[in-house]
Amino acid sequence: QVKALAEDCSNKKTSIDSLKQRLNVATKEKSQYEQMYHKAKDELEKKDLKLTNLESKIIETECAMTELETAASQQLHGLAKESRQALETVQKKLLLTNDKAEELLTFVKALTGELQHSVQELRTKIKQAKKMGELRAYKKGLSQESVQLAASILNVSTTDIEEILEVEDDEETAKTKVEFEKDKEWLQYIQNLIESQ
Fold first, then answer.
1. pTM listed for this prediction
2. Label partner for 13 (CA 20 to 30 A): which of 31, 44, 140, 163?
């Protein structure tokens, strides 16, 4: 019986040693798993912190983008308003300039017409003065008796004789016509110049 008990104790001791070895192995594995757990937990905490920082940066970036968009929109609105005001000012100045240009054109047209008219009147007066001078000089060479004699021969009045003496010659008439045509050409040239510019 003692021998049987001794064998039983020996077997139990062997079993206990085996269990101790398995416990040691399990303890080591537990320690390894705990280390892995703590390591994973640390990494997870770091990643959570990074994620939190990243979310904060995203929010800050979105706020900054919103502010930029608002500022850009305000600037664009301001620029558009300034551009519209500047354009309106330019348009007003352009209309004023056009009005001034029209006034200038009207003035130049009237001035050129008046100049042509004045030149023609002056030429007419010069010719009349020239004719009157020539007529006086011619009449000085003719006595009243000669005029009366010519009137009786032609069977006309002395007034008719004086009108006959005042008639322009063909050369003077042609010269007057040429001068009139030149005046018309000059006036037309000025009109064309005004219309082209």
1. 0.41
2. 31
